[in-house]
Structures are given as structure tokens and as C-alpha cells.
Amino acid sequence: MSPYTEIPVVAVVVAAGTGSRLGAPVPKALVDLEGVPLARRAVDALIDGGVSALVVTIPAGFEAEFDAALEGVAAPVRCVPGGATRQDSVALGLAALQSPPDSVVLVHDAARALVPPAVVRAVADAVAGGAEAAIPVVPVVDSIRRVDDDTSVVVNRARLRAVQTPQGARLQALRDAHTAVAQQGVEVTDDATVCEFAGMAVTLVAGHRDALKITEPTDLILAGAILQHRKES
Q1: For residue 167, what is the enclosing H or E element?
Q2: If you compute the radius of gyration of the chain from its CA atoms, what whole number of angstroms results?
Q3: Full-model pTM
Q4: How many angstroms separate the CA atoms of 136 and 106, rounded?
Q5: Which of 51, 57, 115, 130 yields a CA-CA distance of 20 to 30 A from 144?
């Protein structure tokens, strides 16, 4: 159990992607994984990790489908249309949250549907315990080369980490950071970068291989194997 149970933990789940690389006829977050939509698995994992209320940013026109997918979840959840970019969608989700400004907010990709609740709690506890921002990371296991024109050089992977979600901060601080980034016209790929742009320090916590980002058909196969392993454990 978290030592910070008195601090509200809320979340924005980014689920507005099209899922074109999955080749699915529906948005990625509505794709089934072993009979359950990715968005539902992600929301359930966040709730199991201590999140008490959520906003899910979704593609316009799919309100009924997401309402059906999220029916009966164990915490209040609200779906709002996302924006043209992930950055826009997160800002819209943050604006839609109805929670005190000092709440811990987690921003999570629905595509990381199998994030362990322990990772969710670790990120939330880091922020509740004083971190300005916190993100889960895992060591890079592949050899990496940096390409420069027609040459390349090996990068020391021992100093590299792959970044996952959820990524956390205090609600008002993250809202302000997103506003600053938007006003400066800066494009970012995740909320850790937003926080750093605003001068916030980013704390790293241990992520988990189960929290892979489901992007291509082979990722669904791997995710299915992870679920089977969980059932057998």
C-alpha cells in the first residue's frame, strides 16, 4: 500500500491514436487483447495501482465504443476528444480533470496496456514523496549506433534507459508546463520532456518489460504471451 494514501492520484490516458500500424479497423485503444480492449486493460491497471479518477482522450466519433469498453470500471472515468497531436491530447485531458491542483497526475499511453500496478504506484509515490516529475525506465538491451551522414558509431548502452509510462507530476505543475511548451511552440514526445522544458527535475523509477508499447501486430502476440504467463504464475 502507498504511504501517501491521503494524496489524490488521478490520470490522463492517451487513447486517441489511430492504430494504423496495427492494421486494425478501429482505433488502437479499442483493439482487443485476449478479448479485452487495450484501453480497458490500461485503465484497470492504473486503478489497481491506486488511481482514483481518470480522463481518457479518444478519437472524435468513437464515444459510444469507448463508453462500452470502459463500462463498469472501478473508478470515475470521463472520455474527451483528443487533439491533433499527443501533446495536444494530454493538455486537453489535464484540463478536463476535476481534482485539486496538488493532486498527483499520471499520464499513460493506452498502448502500454499491461503496465504492472506496482509501476503505477512507484511513479505516484515518487511524486507524492517530493519528486517534481517521475518516469519509469528500463535498461536498453539492444546495441545502439548513432548514425551521422554516411558513418555510424556505437553508443554506450550502459548509460541509456528506455522510457515508459505512466509519467507523473503534480497536476497544476504539469498543466503549467504544457501551457509553457505550447506558448513557445515546442514539440515534445513525452511529458518528461515537457517537465524538463519548464525547469522541473525528472526522477527515474524502475519500469517493467511487461509495459511494452503495443504498436505492431507482433506486439499483440508478445502481449498475449505475457498474459498467459501471468495466468500460469
Answers
A1: strand 167-170
A2: 17
A3: 0.95
A4: 11
A5: 115
Per the structure, the complete domain to which residue 194 belongs is given by 9-232
Backbone dihedral angles phi then psi of residue 16, each to the nearest 5 degrees: -95, 5
CATH classification of the domain holding 191: 3.90.550.10
**Is 123 contained in some domain?**
yes
Reading the chain (233 residues) residue by residue, the pLDDT tens digits are: 677 668 999 999 999 877 777 777 789 999 999 999 999 999 999 999 999 999 999 999 999 999 999 999 999 999 999 999 999 999 999 999 999 999 999 999 999 999 999 999 999 999 999 999 999 999 999 999 999 988 999 999 999 999 999 999 999 999 999 999 999 999 898 999 999 999 999 999 999 999 999 999 999 999 999 999 999 98
Q: Which three cell numbers stand for residue 173?
A: 505543475
CB 112 within 8 A of CB 165: yes
Angle of helix 171-184 versus helix 86-96 axis, rounded to 10: 140
Q: What residues does 145 pair with on adjacent strands?
A: 154
Nearest Cα to 189, choosing from 208, 162, 214? 162
**Residue 166 CA neighbour count, 13 Å, CB half:** 37
Copy the grid coordinates of residue 58.
479518444
Domain membership flag for residue 4:
no
Peptide bond into 37 cis (omega under 30): no
Cell of 162: 528506455
Q: Measure Cα distances from 196 to 79, 126, 175, 181 in Å.
A: 28, 16, 13, 10
